[in-house]
Write a structure and sequence with these properties.
Helix content: 40-55%
Distance between the termini: 69 Å
Strand content: 25-35%
CATH architecture of the largest domain: Sandwich
Radius of gyration: 25 Å
Oligomer: single chain
Largest sheet: 13 strands, antiparallel
Number of strands: 13
Number of domains: 3
Order of helices and strands: HHHHHHHEEEEEEEEEEEEE
CATH topology of the largest domain: Jelly Rolls
Number of helices: 7
Shape: globular
CATH class of the largest domain: Mainly Beta
Length: about 375
């Protein structure tokens, strides 16, 4: 009998402690959310976005933060998908309430109307944009036949302003620029995505460590547990402000610390130091990597953990999209369009060559790009 009473008391204490911690997280989220509201009133939407995202990191069920993020993203034509995501999360939180208040019922109706409006506007916009892009493509093709290559490039640039990843415009622009006398070695302009992998070979890459090959149009490598293999692109210097995107599949021996695959940046030919952003099934991490020599003279790197975060967006046996954005010595990281590290301070390294890394597993990469900011 005494044992039963003790067990019940322990359970009650643990439940009370858990409730206290949960409440503390919600209070933190309330404070961060109010900061975000103040930032919105000052029209500092970047700071507001950061505050609301941190509020949701502290307390994922924070309704007001979901609503406010939806409002911020709704203002941008390019972020309607994110607006839908957070409005939907807010609606789901309201749906979970057994006895919603009158204000909560009004909020739900308002969200449903917003979602319908975004969906309709998105459909109309996509149709108009698609028709306009087809018209521009026809103009570009005609100009190219007439050998008006400068004008052709301008038309493709206008297409890319509407659709930065339009395959016809990206390919056509490169072809037209190559036909302009003296312009074949043109460097990418700020804001222009530069694809580093041609799909055929890795002639423009340096195997810093490990064995790398192209198999079926994919860059591939396998590293044993504890091994880190790097492949560096020779022509990927981008300055201190850049965005780099890697599309890859990864299978790892475990989800231990430092195991994973991802992007190398800040690589220097002289020191061979660099930063690495790796992901595995459990987390994303940023490390500073400094080279050293083993007793036999072979190269190894010492990895210093700078930042890590749990994640649940990694797709096993599917291609993942990892994006690293660096600006003003602050890094943001996205996996499959979900932000997983926000506004982390990071000192830039000179050189800024980019590449691919795999530790304790296998990687197959189908594309990698760098965009100067």
């Amino acid at each position: 009998m005494k044992k039963t009473i003790i067990i019940i008391i322990v359970q009650m204490v643990l439940l009370a402690a858990f409730s206290a911690f949960a409440r503390a997280d919600e209070v933190t989220a309330d404070i961060l959310c109010e900061k975000g509201v103040t930032d919105m009133e000052k029209k500092d939407y970047a700071a507001a976005e950061t505050a609301f995202l941190k509020a949701l990191e502290s307390f994922p069920g924070h309704l007001k933060s979901c609503m406010k993020l939806g409002e911020i993203y709704e203002m941008s034509d390019e972020k309607q998908t994110q607006a839908i995501e957070y409005y939907t999360r807010a609606k789901e939180l309201l749906d979970e309430k057994e006895k919603p208040t009158a204000d909560e019922k009004k909020q739900k109706i308002s969200i449903e109307k917003k979602l319908e409006q975004i969906d309709k506007l998105g459909t109309d916009y996509k149709t108009e944009r698609s028709n306009y892009l087809k018209t521009l493509l026809g103009i570009a093709n005609d100009a190219k036949k007439d050998k008006r290559y400068d004008f052709t490039v301008k038309v493709y640039k206008e297409m890319l302003q509407l659709d930065p990843k339009n395959a016809d415009a990206l390919k056509g622009r490169k072809e037209a620029e190559a036909l302009i006398p003296g312009n074949k070695d043109r460097d990418p302009e700020p804001g222009e995505e530069n694809e580093l992998f041609n799909g055929d070979d890795i002639d423009g890459w340096t195997k810093d460590v490990g064995s790398w090959e192209v198999d079926g149009g994919k860059i591939s490598s396998t590293a044993k547990k504890g091994e880190s293999f790097m492949l560096i692109n020779k022509e990927s210097e981008s300055g201190n402000d850049f965005a780099s995107t890697l599309k890859f599949k990864g299978n790892f021996s475990s989800n231990d610390e430092l195991t994973g695959a991802g992007i190398v940046f800040g690589y220097t030919d002289v020191s061979r130091a660099f930063y690495a952003v790796r992901v595995n099934g459990n987390e994303v991490m940023i490390t500073r990597c400094n080279p050293g020599r083993n007793n036999d003279g072979s190269l190894h790197h010492t990895h210093t953990m700078l930042c890590r975060n749990r994640l649940n967006t990694f797709k096993e046996n599917e291609f993942n999209t990892l994006t690293v954005e660096m600006k003003n010595n602050v890094i943001n990281i996205f996996l499959n369009d979900k932000k997983c590290i926000t506004n982390e301070p990071l000192n830039s390294l000179p050189g800024q060559k980019a590449g691919i890394i795999v530790t304790g597993g296998t990687i197959k990469a189908k594309s990698m790009s760098v965009t100067k900011q």
